[in-house]
Design goal:
The protein is an alpha+beta fold and 303 residues long. It has one domain. The chain is built from seven helices and 16 strands. It has an eight-stranded antiparallel sheet. The protein has a six-stranded antiparallel sheet with strand order 1-2-3-5-6-7. A two-stranded antiparallel sheet has the order 14-15. A hairpin with a 3-residue loop joins strand 11 and strand 12. The longest helix has 11 residues. InterPro entries: Phosphatase_reg/MetRdx, TIP41-like. Belongs to the TIP41 family. Pfam families: TIP41.
Length: 303
Amino acid sequence: MAEWGGAAESDLKAAGAEALPDGRSGVRLRGWHIESSRRPILGSLALQEWEEKLGTSHLPEMVFGESSLYLLHEDSGIKLHFNAFDALKGWKQESLPPVEVPAAATWKSRSKPFQQVILDYDYTFTTPYCGSEAIEPNTEKAILEDGCCSLCWEDSDQRIDLAALSSKEPILFFDEVVLYEDELADSGVSLLTVKVRVMPSCWFLLFRFWLRIDGVLMRLRDTRVYCPFVSDHKSMPAILRESCWREATIQSLSAVCSCSLYVHEGFPSDSAAYGDPNLIGQRLPVITHKTQRLKVSRSITGG
């Protein structure tokens, strides 16, 4: 269930926010409509349709295909959307080589017990997906004309204002949505989630792919998106996105690290030490990192 972060009705009113009606999970504030939805795991027929559309015979064990989070800036029509289908499209397109694990072939043999399984795909379902963006054409108040504008992410030197996120503001809305999960036959976890937090001064979200293969590998792909509210909500929103890919083998994490000042014993090789990505994430080496700003590009049409 979505949480209202302890926010009283008075906090919502003081911030000029309102909860969504009809039991929907979300909030409207400063020109933004922010809504999350959680739905059951896709059934077999829906999974078959997804396999056909994606061109694959492999999907995670648990796909919450109708669960999502979207954030719509009503005056501009800018919409950010996070969903499992687009994430799996990214997985299919990137097509990382499968992690070399001797037991991995038996993990996926559960669906074909009498056939030899050849791992020729990324069974971890690692995705480069950082969210979807669009200009909503049917937004009544949208100031961007459909067909004349497009959205893109450009590199930026700006950083997300962490001080603003650590302030003592009330949390007006919070939710965490699971998009898909695979337990790798009890040998680890592959998990894709999105968390959102809305405060009187801003909204912030963490989109996370988390992989742990027990005794072998840890991989963390985090995307943080931040948008401060401005006094004139009709102005174009300033949206920053930071994406970071971290990864390390369990062997390297558990190794002894020494220098002239101290000797640090690495993490234990026991997989129980790696259950929380929040605790272990900062120990993982950075593979790639980039900060971007959402830009509206206007096309020039002849008169």
